[in-house]
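Reopening this one. Same input as before:
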Amino acid sequence: MRIMRAAFASRFDDADPLAALTVGEQPEPSLPDDDWVTLRVTASSLNHHDLWSLRGVGLRAEQLPMILGCDAAGVDPDGNEVVVYPVVPTPGDPRGMSILSEHFPGTLAERVAVPRSNLLPLPAGLAAADAACLPTAWLTAWRMLTTKGRVDDAEAILVQGAGGGVATAAVALAVALGKRVYATSRDAAKRERIAELGATAVEPGARLPERVDLVIETVGAATFDHSMKSAALGARIVVSGATAGHEPTVNLRRVFAMQLEILGTSMGTPDELAALLTFCAERGVRPVIDSVVPFSRVGDAFARLHSGDVFGKVVVDHAA
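Same output, byte for byte:
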């Protein structure tokens, strides 16, 4: 049995998720089917999903230890540089699928096993550290804007809670798509960085100079009323998270009077990830990276994410 270094959940701790994180040796993941392969991970990135896993959300005690991580770029058995699509068919899951680190070992390790069909070529000119940011947060933002939000039919967009991975990705992508983008943040320093990305940064709840055609909502109850009041006739409010409350008060009169669409989404398809990779490579769009941390200090990467001070993605360099 081959042994590798990995970052994994060894127990659950809702109050202090960092205390449930262990960095140490784990067996190399087995291949559950003939169409699976093992690749060497060169870069990965963290998501809030990893912190929720440490809290015990989506995992059972009998699944421990579970290697964390959804996102990765690496090298396949044939020596090709690839990006991992992290959604895996999972018949035992009610959704019929799962994300790496839920039922199958994740990417925060020297090696990860995935179906060969989950590997996409790393486009020329796109660094592994950049590509490792895309498969979860950036793919979710891309699907929110394109497939669900019908961004081609929108002129103005509101992104709530920019600074986090999905929201910051949505800002960067929407600006690259040539849209007028408004983005909220409670943090003045983050509002300055949002403005540097090309958006108009505003405080949460601020009245916008115009109603928007599309709202990117990852915050939840704390911002949802503002999202609805900011929406133009026929606007789409696309929801992929609820970091500040999952049970907002919804004014149904506004929903039907303004003919609003409230749409839920999560992740995206392999074709959407391929389109995102191509878009970033061809347009010169690069993920907003908060920090790059060597795997030898992966605990610091988790602490950085947990602090709430991040702007963009925390990347782990597996070569260091």
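So the earlier flakiness isn't reproducible anymore. For the record, DSSP finds nine helices and 18 strands in the chain.
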